[in-house]
Amino acid sequence: MKIVMHLECSYRAELQRHDHYDYVRTVAINVKAHDDAVDEFTVGRIVLDKVLWQDAQVDGISLFEVCDADSAGLTEVYRVLTDPDQEWELREDLNIHGVVNEVLFINRIVLHPDVTDRRAVIEAALHAVTTDDALVVMWRSPPGNTEISDKELSELGFAKIVGESLIYRDMHYETAFTKEYPSGRDVEILGTQEHEDWVREQWGEGE
Given its phi and psi angles, is residue 157 left (phi above 0), alpha (psi -120 to 50 degrees) or beta? Predict the structure, then answer.
């Protein structure tokens, strides 16, 4: 039997947006794999913040205040992406031509070393929680245990920002990975309790 991974995604969304915090949704993505029976185990975890970028603009809410109210990380994302003279305008040198409905900031990535294709997991995770009308931002070396090579990042469509430690991806465009695997790519792994214990330890659970 072919044993492949799948994702479980969760976040909280308010019925009505009342304040700045309601424009940011923290998304938890658990990467799961079955054993050779029926049990499943966590073999990785990704956490990101989803900023309702377009909704804030339509509602007349300051994007700076939305990001600043959430975290220093999102404040930095705002600074790096926007024109300092026009709050809602993205920097021209980023060459973003389509509508941006959401900005995703990847906070942390932990994937067990037995996960053989990190690109496939990250690509699937992004498409599971957003659309093509989005920007994805992350630190060049995101917090966690998972080192992602420049080649992998390039194949996932991430680009450097001159003078910055953050990198970004415009989801409007195809990437080398999506051209090669337009329907995604399965990654086979036999999940074990040891995998899950390792992820929990790396994440700092139980300390």
Answer: left
